[in-house]
Amino acid sequence: KKNWKKEVARDLIALGSIPFYIIVIIRAVIGEYQPFINQLAISIIFVLLLSLIIKQANYYLSRGLIIVVFTSLFYKEFLFTTFAILLFLGMIYSAYYRVHKVKEIVYGCIIGGVSSLSSYYLSPLI
How many other CB atoms are there within 10 angstroms of residue 36's CB atom? Predict the structure, then answer.
C-alpha cells in the first residue's frame, strides 16, 4: 500500500526539478518570450554558481522559487500568482515532511531569492 502523502510530497518537490525547469524554458522559447527566457537563464546560472559555494541547500526549492517568481511576473494574474505561491509553500512543507533539514530548506529559498533578484535586475541589460 502506497503512502499518498509521500507521493504528493514527492510530486510537489518535482516542480523544482531540472526537467520541469527545462520544460518552462522550452515553452518560453516556443512562444518567443525572450525577456522571460533571459530571466530563467540568468537565474539558473546564479543557482549553479551559488551551489559551488553553498553545498547544503535544497536546490529543488531554489529552482521552484525562481519559476514561481518569473511565471507570476510573466502572467501578471492574481489567481495564478496565488496558486503558484501555494504550490511553493507546499514544496517547502514537502521538503520538511520528507526529512530535509531546515537549514537546507532555508538555504534553498535564499539561493532562489538571490538568483531571482539578481536576474530580475540583470536581464534588462541583455
Answer: 20
122/23 Cα distance (integer angstroms): 23
Burial (0-12, 13-18, 19+ Cβ within 10 Å), 33: middle
Taking alpha carbons only, the member of 119, 108, 110 closest to residue 36 is: 119
Decide: pTM greater than 0.85.
yes
The closest alpha carbon to 61, from 30, 28, 33, 103, belongs to 103
CA-based diameter of the chain, in Å?
Answer: 53
User: How far is Cα 73 from Cα 71, in angstroms, rounded to an integer?
Assistant: 5
In the numeric block, the cell 505561491 is attached to 85
Looking at the chain, how many residues does it have?
126
What are 40-58's pLDDT values in tens digits? 999 999 999 999 999 999 9
Question: Could you give phi then psi for residue 31, rounded to 5 degrees?
Answer: -85, -5
